[in-house]
Design a protein that fits this description.
globular; alpha+beta
């Protein structure tokens, strides 16, 4: 085998350095400041909308914006989209889990920015963090700072105290999109002739933020998690 010349070895080393330093064009200079701004904007919109609904609507009150879009005030004790963990300590366990999870998401965001991860990944993590934090605020504090909404409009910081205790607040939901709300045609197997609603869950801005982030990661998966050239 022919011996490599110093010049040939130099160019091989130079080529290796270039490959190691090369970053795809979609890698970002997304800073922690920019990510924090995104998080703050989502939180502000989320909390302002929840406080407005809580202090102006009675539980179960519904306002038609369009036939397929309504503002419907509901509260849930559980996860996104109204799901919940049953049992006496289910709510507390979920809230504590959320607090631990948000710490992990925060570290993931910080580490991704430090490593100059793709912009779509940093954006998605920021939206997930904002959505999770928005619902944690409800779960931790709303039981203390709001009165009950059953058959009355709640007040903020009531003198008699809130409807619950810390860590036992209820998440405020208000966005309802019954895109299809009718009886299914009889020719459809099994469900034909039955009433069907799509989309039935009621959600909030925080839920939307998480859902948008997940959609971005699914659609732009290859950009969010690019493979190194050595792995290809």
């Amino acid at each position: 085998m022919a011996k490599k010349t110093p010049i040939f070895a130099y160019f091989c080393r130079l080529n290796q350095i270039i490959k190691e330093a090369r970053l795809p064009s979609y890698h970002s200079n997304m800073t922690l400041k920019k990510a924090s701004l995104i998080i703050a904007l989502v939180l502000i919109v989320d909390q302002v909308s929840k406080i407005y609904i809580k202090t102006n609507f009675v539980l179960g009150q519904e306002v038609y914006v369009f036939e397929w879009f309504r503002i419907l005030f509901v509260e849930n004790e559980g996860m996104a989209w109204g799901a919940k963990i049953p049992g006496a300590y289910g709510k507390l366990a979920l809230t504590l889990f959320r607090i631990v999870a948000i710490a992990g998401i925060g570290y993931w965001l910080w580490d991704s920015i430090r490593k100059q991860a793709p912009k779509v990944l940093v954006l998605s993590i920021s939206l997930i963090f904002a959505g999770a934090l928005g619902n944690i605020i409800d779960s931790v504090f709303y039981g203390v700072i709001f009165s009950d909404s059953h058959q009355q409009v709640a007040s903020m910081f009531p003198t008699e105290g809130g409807y619950g205790t810390i860590f036992h607040g209820k998440v405020v939901d208000m966005l309802y999109f019954p895109l299809y709300n009718d009886t299914l045609p009889t020719w459809i197997p099994f469900w034909g002739g039955q009433h069907f609603t799509f989309f039935d869950p009621v959600f909030n801005i925080a839920d939307s933020s998480i859902s948008v982030a997940v959609a971005l990661l699914l659609i732009f998966n290859k950009k969010a998690f690019p493979k190194n050239e050595d792995e290809e």
